Task: inverse folding
């Protein structure tokens, strides 16, 4: 039991260190993560590079693959792109094994001590993030050293040594048992890095030669697919296909290497590190994933077609998606990417509110009850979106965010509220359109022209607010604030002139009340556009 608890404690520190290091790297990368994702194109090689780099930053191929499933589910990444990223993630995850196989345990406590000191006494965010990386790095090696110490007594247990050595005999049954062992442990702990860390600890103590560890490593690669497959439950058909491609990629790679390249791989890694079993294992892990990607990348299209064949799209799944399109809780594992997605979703909500507003005014000008009813339907979607985005922002605010990212999240809370209010005013305008139709109200040509002119100014302001939110354009935001004063003055002027028309009995009282209600709603929409512009300025100028 002592061995088990020491191994468990060491594994816990190893994973905790890896998590802290990944968080620090991600915070340091900041906006670079956004640029990395944006670089992603249909170019398969670029997709592989993106997958490798993102996984090196967040220190988890499972997290990257889950994130890819989320991207595919949100419709912002196609299956060909996803295939390249998944292959790259398998390469990126080998960095953990390479780091763990280094003999740096002696300096790890010093690194942790110095880094914690820097973290405690500095107020510079960038320095704090760098200190976090080194704290995680040091804890990872302390955990690695604990695992090595825990498994050392196992050298005295002949039965345990015989079992491990049997994995390297090369028979079909023994190889299958080794692959299944790697698969099972990884599927249970949901981390191929954890399994690899244990294997490196065993190899470091001379308990696990490369002949025995290689098929286990193949099994860990298959086991990491379980996380993505579980995450695809409840996702759309394309996301399920992405998880299937990941599974097939690792299965085919394992079959090829076990049949064709196992002996070549063992020979090569022994030449690189003749006496170091831990380095042999880490190098074999890297070599397998790079070679597997090079061999299967040209056939990515075939893997995609196979996934489409195995998981065909059902007729009922072909529907137009309105409402939430970009949010996926899988992305919360990578907050910098989740922020990009929640901004996109806010823009989606903003554009829907714009559509609702324009329809409501069209319903009024065209006396169309049909268009007014469309506005009411969109308003329900906007209300639902605000709730979903707000819930997502709450979850996002509880993740590991930098100060700048917290400012963005806080600003988005206010922005979605402003957008929802625009939807409410559109709903009010649609009700006024219905009232006009039901009561057969007529408006003078001058009154209609005044409403159209104010409507055009408000639409321009709101459109520019959404553009400023999308681009962070400060000049555009300032223009909106300047126009806000113009629209306020216009509302007062139109109100005064219309009251004068009412006094002269140039229009009916009912029409007059509707006119005043409309310009009031338009002025409020302009206010909310101004609030969105202020939120952009507060997060961009700092």
Result:
């Amino acid at each position: 039991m002592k061995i088990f608890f020491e191994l468990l404690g060491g594994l816990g520190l190893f994973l905790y260190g890896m998590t802290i290091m990944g968080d620090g790297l991600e915070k340091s990368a900041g906006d670079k993560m956004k640029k990395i994702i944006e670089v992603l194109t249909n170019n398969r090689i670029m997709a592989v590079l993106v997958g490798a780099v993102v996984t090196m930053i967040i220190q988890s191929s499972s997290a990257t693959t889950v994130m890819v499933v989320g991207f595919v589910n949100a419709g912002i990444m196609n299956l060909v792109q996803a295939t390249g990223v998944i292959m790259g993630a398998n390469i990126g995850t080998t960095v953990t094994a390479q780091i763990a196989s280094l003999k740096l345990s002696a300096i790890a406590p010093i690194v942790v001590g110095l880094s914690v000191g820097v973290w405690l006494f500095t107020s510079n965010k960038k320095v704090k993030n760098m200190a976090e990386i080194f704290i995680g790095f040091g804890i990872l090696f302390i955990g690695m050293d604990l695992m090595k110490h825990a498994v050392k007594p196992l050298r005295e247990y002949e039965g345990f040594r015989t079992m491990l050595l049997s994995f390297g005999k090369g028979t079909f049954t023994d190889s299958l048992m080794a692959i299944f062992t790697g698969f099972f442990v990884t599927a249970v702990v949901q981390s191929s890095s954890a399994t690899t860390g244990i294997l490196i600890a065993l190899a470091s103590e001379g308990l696990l030669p490369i002949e025995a560890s290689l098929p286990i490593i193949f099994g860990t690669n298959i086991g990491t697919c379980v996380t993505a497959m579980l995450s695809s439950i409840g996702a759309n058909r394309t996301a399920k296909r992405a998880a299937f491609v990941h599974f097939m990629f690792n299965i085919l790679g394992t079959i090829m290497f076990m049949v064709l390249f196992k002996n070549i791989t063992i020979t090569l890694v022994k030449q690189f590190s003749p006496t170091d079993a831990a380095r042999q294992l880490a190098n074999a892990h890297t070599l397998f994933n790079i070679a597997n990607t090079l061999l299967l990348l040209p056939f990515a299209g075939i893997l995609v077609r196979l996934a489409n064949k195995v998981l065909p799209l059902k007729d009922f799944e072909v529907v137009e998606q309105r409402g939430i399109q970009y949010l996926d809780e899988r992305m919360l594992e990578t907050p910098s990417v989740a922020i990009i997605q929640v901004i996109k979703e806010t823009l989606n909500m903003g554009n829907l509110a714009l559509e609702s507003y324009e329809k409501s005014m069209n319903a009024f000008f065209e006396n169309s009850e049909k268009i007014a009813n469309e506005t009411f339907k969109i308003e329900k979607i906007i209300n639902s979106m605000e709730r979903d985005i707000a819930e997502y922002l709450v979850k996002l605010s509880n993740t590991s965010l930098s100060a700048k990212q917290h400012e963005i999240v806080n600003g988005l809370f206010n922005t979605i509220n402003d957008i929802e209010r625009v939807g409410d005013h559109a709903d009010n305008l649609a009700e006024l359109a219905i009232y006009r139709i039901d009561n057969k109200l007529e408006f003078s040509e001058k009154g209609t022209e005044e409403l159209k002119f104010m409507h055009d100014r408000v639409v321009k302001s709101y459109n520019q607010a959404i553009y400023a939110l999308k681009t962070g354009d400060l000049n555009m935001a300032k223009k909106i604030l300047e126009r806000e004063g113009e629209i306020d003055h216009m509302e007062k002027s139109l109100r005064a002139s219309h009251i004068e028309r009412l006094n002269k009995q140039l229009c009916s009282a009912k029409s007059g009340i509707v006119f005043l209600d409309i310009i009031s709603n338009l002025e409020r929409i302009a206010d909310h556009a101004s609030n969105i512009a202020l939120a952009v300025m507060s997060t961009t100028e700092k």
Q: What stands out?
A: The first helix runs from residue 2 to 29. Residues 461 and 480 are 6 Å apart (CA to CA). The chain has 22 helices and no strands. The radius of gyration is 30 Å.
